[in-house]
Amino acid sequence: MPVPLSAETIRQAPKVLLHDHLDGGLRPSTIVDIAGRIGYRALPTTDVDELATWFRDASSSGSLERYLETFSHTVAVMQTVEGLRRVAREAVEDLAADGVVYAEIRWAPEQHTEGGLTLEQVVEAVLSGFREGEAAAAAAGQTIRVGAIATAMRHAARSLEIAELAVRYRDDGVVGFDIAGAEAGYPPTRHLDAFEYLRRENAHFTIHAGEAFGLPSIWEAIQWCGTDRLGHGVRIVDDITAGGKLGRLAQYVRDKRIPLEMCPSSNVQTGAANSIEEHPIGMLRRLQFRVTVNTDNRLMSQTSMTRELTLLAEAFHYTWADLQWFTVNAMKSAFIGFDERLAIINSVVKPGYARLTA
């Protein structure tokens, strides 16, 4: 008999995470500790529980811009090699404890140079933290593989520089590139030189699109910029009728199997979806889009992969087969080599779900 679905049993299932922001997943206790060490006094409170609540409440305004404001505090405590390594290590440990077996964690190196670090020092500190986290997880009997995604801020003008940085470190653990930040007024086509460079270098990239802005953002990301994946992509439903008829863009996205990095709780917080029960992921799963489930910012949403999958299972009456489908989708869409992806699917993901459904 299959093991009944619950938060506890879902935690035991192998999970794959493609869209998780390093500066959105800090432990509140770590923020308070590092802030005290470096003399950062702008935190709204130094009480760990109250700080966790503040992040959740400040992120639930329904405004993407307000949501993004919360990052001023997390980025402030990630301006030293020690701080970056610690945050990166703890992120991996937390994901491994939640049953994540493969993760791609993204962050914007350009936001961590205020204390005098070079971009190279920032990248090397984070990669070192990831490797330390993998080793700590292994010592605890947990297996996890982590890749880094170097992100450029779409309102800035450093995307080509960050793209070059990503390519420079791709043999050391940087598996891809991304642009992030407020979509309105900052279309992905502003960064065409970066995307053209990445394509010349045979490098992978994803683009935040279709979250706060609509179909034109998705169309530009795909047809002008050539993205491999869509960060969120929620608004692709604007090209699908209530009866499930697909428009030209939605049909293209589905036919080309372009992965959608969906983050249900975060999408509700920023107003991209009304509720978990009304989240477009339900329709998109039924229509067989390449949908993946992600956390986005674990601190701001007070979430984990276990929580996201549990919420979806409750809202849409999903079974273990559905959760395995999401997980295999994500692993197929990862930015590591085909052999590695296949090995994780066949030796980790499928056996892990088989134990829960036997």
Automatic annotation (TrEMBL):
GO terms for biological process: adenosine catabolic process; hypoxanthine salvage; inosine biosynthetic process; nucleotide metabolic process; purine ribonucleoside monophosphate biosynthetic process. It is an enzyme of class 3 (hydrolase). The keyword Cell membrane does not apply. Residues 14-350 form the Adenosine deaminase domain. Zn(2+) binds at H19, H21, H208, D296. The record marks H232 as: Important for catalytic activity. Its EC number is 3.5.4.4. Belongs to the metallo-dependent hydrolases superfamily. Adenosine and AMP deaminases family. Adenosine deaminase subfamily. Catalyzes the hydrolytic deamination of adenosine and 2-deoxyadenosine. This is Adenosine deaminase. The gene is add.
